[in-house]
Design goal:
about 325 residues, alpha+beta, 6-stranded mixed beta sheet, 4-stranded mixed beta sheet, 9 helices, globular, binds adenosine-5'-diphosphate, binds magnesium ion
Length: about 325
């Protein structure tokens, strides 16, 4: 067997639990359940752009899948299958072993089949494509928010961005719980169960990958509305309370990599949303204004620097 096929066989071939046909043919085969449609998404992690070249491979295997499952969560879809396109500078068994272990641990936790992929040589890059199923016509899109909806977020925000700054030596303040923050950066937990629970309740949803203001901005744009966020309500990990205000604002409002869910739900559903737990109401969707306004305790807008990350944006 060629080294390429041996590698695929050794690390990335497991019998699929759901797919009609998995790794090994020209295509995988998938039959969606009756009454469901497919939700499809892909995301790439590039060495030097999304992670340090010496990043822990187990964490990378986890994160590459996690960020994709987060997109399925944000539609209210059930994760089903994944395709992995892996570009490697060289074959390093220890690296592959750890990467595969990180990947499979999360894949099994979410009952996801790896049904195919591609393996090439070149600068390290990891592309995952995921397939999920969601009840026909029911997916929680970005364009469904209504004026007067409550705006909610899951978990807390800014931990991953602060961890990144700590790792890069860009934060001089002493910070509590550094290890917990690094977990937020390296092992995001896709909010799949919450996404499913919100399917019959919420109007619109997005996952927070590029920063709260940027991502809620996408909800606003697609829904033709504005949003008002009360800064005092936005949840953040304890470590962020230790840093200076400007860094706190940057991490919580514009930091990326949180992979929490931001969603708009009717005010009449407030107690139903509350009952799901792990969610915080941070503001509301408003008509007649554009974009996202973050308000301080006195109701004045807070200026947000650098809202979100854009690979092709101008260097700031
Ligand atoms: P083809 O030349 O037909 O595109 P390949 O030779 O690239 O197929 O791959 C052979 C089989 O292995 C295919 O089923 C493909 O989906 C699968 N495969 C290749 N690389 C990976 C990978 N990194 N992870 C999972 N499956 C893979
Ligand atoms: Mg082929």
């Amino acid at each position: 067997m060629s080294p390429e096929f041996a590698l695929i066989e050794q690390y990335f071939t497991r019998a699929p639990r759901h797919a009609a046909l998995g790794v090994g043919d020209d295509c995988a085969l998938w039959s969606p359940a009756a009454g469901f449609e497919l939700a499809l998404s892909t995301d790439t992690l590039v060495s030097g752009t999304h992670f340090f070249p010496d990043a822990d491979p187990h964490g990378l295997g986890h994160k590459a899948l996690a960020v994709n499952l987060s997109d399925l969560a944000a539609m209210g879809a059930i994760p089903r299958a994944a395709l992995l396109a892996l570009t490697l500078p060289r074959v390093e068994p220890a690296w592959l072993e750890a990467f595969a272990a990180g990947f499979w641990a999360l894949a099994e936790a979410f009952d996801v089949d790896l049904v195919g992929g591609d393996t090439t040589r070149g600068p390290l890059s990891i592309t995952l494509t995921v397939l999920g199923e969601v009840e026909q016509g029911r997916a929680l899109r970005r364009d469904g928010a209504k004026a007067g909806d409550d705006l909610w977020v899951s978990g807390d925000l800014g931990g991953a961005a602060l961890a990144l700054r700590l790792v890069q030596g860009l934060c001089a303040d002493p910070v509590a719980d550094v290890e917990a923050l690094k977990v937020r950066l390296n092992r995001p937990q896709p909010r799949v169960a919450l996404g499913r629970a919100l399917l019959p309740i919420a109007h619109a949803m997005i996952d927070v990958s590029d920063g709260l203001v940027a991502d809620v901005g996408h909800l606003c744009e697609r829904s033709g509305l504005g949003a008002e966020i009360e800064w005092s309500r936005v949840p953040m990990p304890d470590g962020l309370r230790d840093v200076q205000e400007s860094l706190r604002l940057a991490c919580v409002l514009a930091g990326g990599d949180d992979y929490e869910l931001a969603f708009a739900a009717p005010a009449a559903q407030r107690s139903a949303v509350e009952a799901l737990g792990g969610v915080t109401r941070i503001g509301s969707m408003v008509a007649g204004v554009e974009g996202v306004r973050v308000l301080d305790a006195s109701g004045s807008p807070i200026r947000v620097e650098r809202p979100g990350f854009d690979h092709f944006g101008h260097a700031s």
